[in-house]
Fold these 3 entries.
Entry 1:
Amino acid sequence: MSIALPRAKSVASESAVSPDVDNESDISALIARLTAEVNQIACEKTRSIQKITNQMKMLALNALIESSRAGAQGAGFAVVAQEVRGVGQQVETIARELETQLTRRTGNLMSSIERMTDRSRGERMMDLSLNAIELIDRNLYERTCDVRWWATDSAVVDCAASPQPAVVAHASERLGVILSAYTVYLDLWLCDLEGNVIASGRADRFKVIGRNVAATKWFREAKELRSGDDYVAGDIECQPLLGNAQVATYCASVREGGKAHGKPTGVLAIHFDWEPQARAIVQGVRVGAADKARVLLIDSNFRVIAASDGQGLLTEHVSLSLNGQRSGFYQDRSGALVAFHGTPGYETYRGLGWYGVILCGAAS
């Protein structure tokens, strides 16, 4: 079996990279501020015009009063006063129309900017959700390669075929060497076809040799694998035999001669140290402080399996309005932004129906 062999690395060595996330929001805020300022200036100037026209009308009224006192001699002056009064009324009408039209148009512009800003924010959060789930997919793809490769290791193959004490000791030593180089794992277990753990990479730390795991979902599925090219990817669980640590368990069948289609002789289970690796992913997503964002990974049952605030792990369920979409964003009833993206998978790793999710407080 030929499998690509990626070098082990911590998820913490990667992060969900985004360009300067404040640029778009800063530009939108600037446009909104300038529009509001234009609207304020226009209103102030039109009110100033209205004030002047009111003064003109008052002067015209006074002129009419004085012309009436002057009798026939003030008749001509009365005509001028009437014209001034009419001009003042026209200017006042124009000023009011100008204020109304400017206010309406700047209001429409500000509403458009707000919608554009909300959409831009939603799309950015959706992209960051994709970044998060893609990073974990890439990392878990490597886990599927690891388990299939190590299941062909001669020490593992020999131990599964003949679990004699010296052979078991050699296999456990070999698994320990692997663990020293691949620090993202808690332990590696070699199980016989009855579900008994016969070798372990950290036998001095975890007393698992001789324990039976036949009832676990991942073992039952691993026994049904058709070839050494196939694998089992388990859901995140707390593993009692590993100190109740959160793990993602990956399995491959061990086969005679290490051949892909040889007779199965055992199951290799590798336990990915999930919690610290997943935490590095969600806390590495570069959301802005103003977004008040909570970054999550959720499984196919919408159960929280990673959270940037460390809350609700494996207990909280998130209600998503997917509307048949694999990605999108929307505002919930509280006005908060919800952005999500389903797992795209990576290479031969199809993913488990997980989602990257970002929950943002309502923009102030």
Entry 2:
Amino acid sequence: MTRSHATPIRSIEARAYRIPLPAPESDGTLEWDHVTLVVVHAAAGGVTGCGYGYSDQAVIPIIAQLLVPRLLGTDAMATNASWRVMKGAVRNLGVSGLCAQAISAVDIALWDLKARLLDVSLMQLLGAARTSVPGYASGGFTSLSHEALHDAARAWRDAGFSRVKIKVGRHPDDDPARVATVRDAVGAEVEVFVDANGAYTVAQALQMAQAFAPFRITWFEEPVSSDDITGLRAVREHTPPGLAVAAGEYGFTGDDFRRLLEPRCVDVLQADATRCGITGWLRAVNLCEAFHVPLSSHCAPALHASLCCAASPAVHVEVFEDHAHIEAQYFDGIPTLHDGNLCPHANQPGLGLRFREGDARCHLAC
């Protein structure tokens, strides 16, 4: 469409849906039995954009009371200006955590709206670098038995994934055996990743890196807390060759990503647009290019497939089991999976997603 003037934002609505899981799950440091999906719709110029994220219903009043009043009537195309306005609105509360997740959900909706107003896909608006991106299967929770873990890994391999990731760290003594179970299930050709969610100490992480070596593990995610910059760097410097250390999923700002990249704490930076927004994601892309470090997305595969297709440093998308199931159940237009690659619908405007609110209404939290 041709635009000669601003397109004012007319409405922004946010809702949270508390979606129960079939069974409790756990990783190295956390247990959960539900996922909270936050969905934002933003309207301008007779068009509605949709953004979403995984957070808590506590973000809804932040959006409604702090963000929406400052955005209504502003230009829907001015995403950088909207980002600055939202950051300013939460200054006294802190820009990380829940506030960042609230901002991110709105930011995603505004980028989707902008692309829809221009009648182009988001990946085209951002400048597509490819038409598909490799995905890696992710789950393998510490709550699973060895038999269930074996079956899950085998199913991922059979679905065409060439990379699979499991959780470790809750019971360190059992972790090498769990990794062996997965290697047996997927065979020699599939890469195996592990994610400790910051559960290990530096000494434990280095010990585990050696213990995992016979199973040709190629990815060690958050071996220690991402807050422990010194420890993370120590692990990266002393892991066996071929084992990439990854972190960054808790990056809320560009400074968070820079703090991992400048001291060379990671071999691969992770970024999650549901925590840093699409605007923050683009800053992570630029930082990865500047530091010559690959980028991988964290969770929310239906969202990140389009973003990674537009990001030259991106190497793959995490197809996290919980989020993949939720997106398939409550959204139309999710990217297709072909030979382990995610393929966004490049001929659809925006993210190409449509939220099926009627199907999710029974889980409405606020």
Entry 3:
Amino acid sequence: MSRCAFVTLVNSPDYVIGAQALKHSLDRTVSAYPLICMVPPNSCDPAPLEAAGCKIKEVYTPRFSDEFIRRHKRDSLHRRAPFDKGSKPAFHDPLNNFCKLALWQLTQFDKLVFLDADTLVLRNIDHLMNYPEFCAAPNLYEDLDGFHRMNSGLFTAVPSEATYQKMLEQLDRPGVFWRRTDQTFLQSFFPRWHGLPYIYNALQYLYLNLPQLWQWDSIHVIHYQYEKPWQKQHSKVEKLKPLIDLWWAVYEGRDIAVDLDELARA
């Protein structure tokens, strides 16, 4: 399994700190695999990522038609499909999400596990490298209907240039609109996706909306969807304080074992 890796996308300076925390969390759980940071040209300074021990891979945004760009740029997408459950930070650019597809071009690897740069690994997940393509956890954060949809914050992939080219053929077609960008597209491209337990991609709003499912002693990955833990101010800072404090402890390299035990008993 040496030709395996975790991979994330860092497409703006604001996600550099997220990817650093993600790498720290993988190191803390004694992962055997590297973290590859896909970085589009001129999108951020990769030096802090390299200093954290990440491997850098330059990737490029797919070439989109003008019509596709107009439909999916931030203002247009938010008018047509507003985020009414939480707030996306100002640095979020929906078009950048499609850079995630470039991981299928990393054919020097046999298997990749993608993690969004706003995720944190609490327990070792190296075993996911043995899982087939395409595995993902449900988009579970508000009600049980989320079990019917996947969330693209974590998934397994088998790199293939042929797969990437098929994706490009289906991605930018006349009139197509991917409501949640890469997430909606990937569910369409992999309609028979394999469902992982939600504990492999526990969305932070699950902590607020379905607390009976938030079991600290079993969660493997936290996904800080919507507001980010490194944002200085947002409307849910107090409600999400235990999750935010945990993220900062990992980012700053503090021991979180005791904190996790205390949270599990709470």
